[in-house]
Amino acid sequence: MDRTPRDRDEEGRARSARPRDGLGRPLPYGAEGVERQPEGIERSPAQTLREAQRLLDAGMPFHAHEVFEDAWKSGPAGERDLWQGLAQLAVGLTHAARGNATGGARLLRRGADRIGAPDPVRQAAGYGIDVAGLASWARELAGRADRVRDAAAEAPRLRVGLVD
Description:
Structural class: mainly alpha
Distance between the termini: 52 Å
Radius of gyration: 16 Å
Largest sheet: none
Number of strands: 0
Strand content: under 5%
Helix content: 40-55%
Number of helices: 7
Shape: globular
Low-confidence stretches: none
């Protein structure tokens, strides 16, 4: 059996070097993919929301999820549920757009529940995040996840009354 060695980063952790499409799906080596989202970037909440919105609007929810992941890993522990919930919404949209309606719906509902908990609601208000609107969007999209084809067309607005 021919086994191709796994791609590794500088620390020896497995990291796929394959190019990816806008929904994060691996493409064949040598194919032209979209630029990867750099990992481990510390951003302010406003910068996180601005970058994630840009990626969502571009039809790249998988990449937006990575921005939210950076926020939960580098931000205050008390904000973890907020950023994880937003990441779940982005991954839910990713799965739905990839054709995985069951997984997409599950993640959309889970993310809606997480951001709707009391602590994330308080934190979200301070950042202008439209928790009620996002939770409503996620639950509605979960109900029709089998019909999602265009992630950009389905992208939610993260903040109330703010256009970045």
